[in-house]
Amino acid sequence: MGKNFDLLVFDWDGTIFDSAAAIVAAVQAACRDLGLPEVPTEQARHVIGMGLDDAMRYVAPGLPSERYREMAARYRHHYLASDHQLELFAGIEAMIVELASAGFPLAVATGKSRIGLERAFAISGLKPYFRASRCADECFSKPHPQMLESLMEEFDVPSSRTLMIGDTTHDLQMAKNANVASVGVSYGAHPRASLDALMPLECFDSVADLHGWLLANA
To answer: For residues 56 and 60, what is the distance between their CA atoms, to the nearest angstrom?
Structure first.
């Protein structure tokens, strides 16, 4: 059976990498370092997938603008202290390897910086399977469609043949903004109800279910 998509684009944090808890902890620690009220966990989880500047402004909207750089630096300090201990979600490596072996071009669109993604690639060992990637310091932050538009241009693949897979509303809204189909995963940062509201093709609670669907339908 022929493929329905010629480009599969994955979010990273909360979709491939089990990093949501570490991101939340780093956001909350950065708030404490600056003497700010600790942001609730739900609010901190909401920023996963955003570029770092946008994320800091979301969790601390009243902070003087000149202090956002300091807050971002404290976030990086706390996140990098533990990111080497993070792991792929169970089953992700087998899924990525099988999809790449089946001939699917795979790419990443992430709220990480380029340095952050390269570090995550090195920790995970998955870089060889992804043919391209876009980061928040190279493009507009999600949900702006630029990351997807840039990847589609690179691969010369139309929006109708591109699929975005992600765990946040930012991922699925970016897909909508780029006229790209999406699949949500609810094992990451955002609750299933929020993902379903953006009408992805499917939303899965496990990597195993995502894996099976992609092999059968992508």
So the answer is: 6
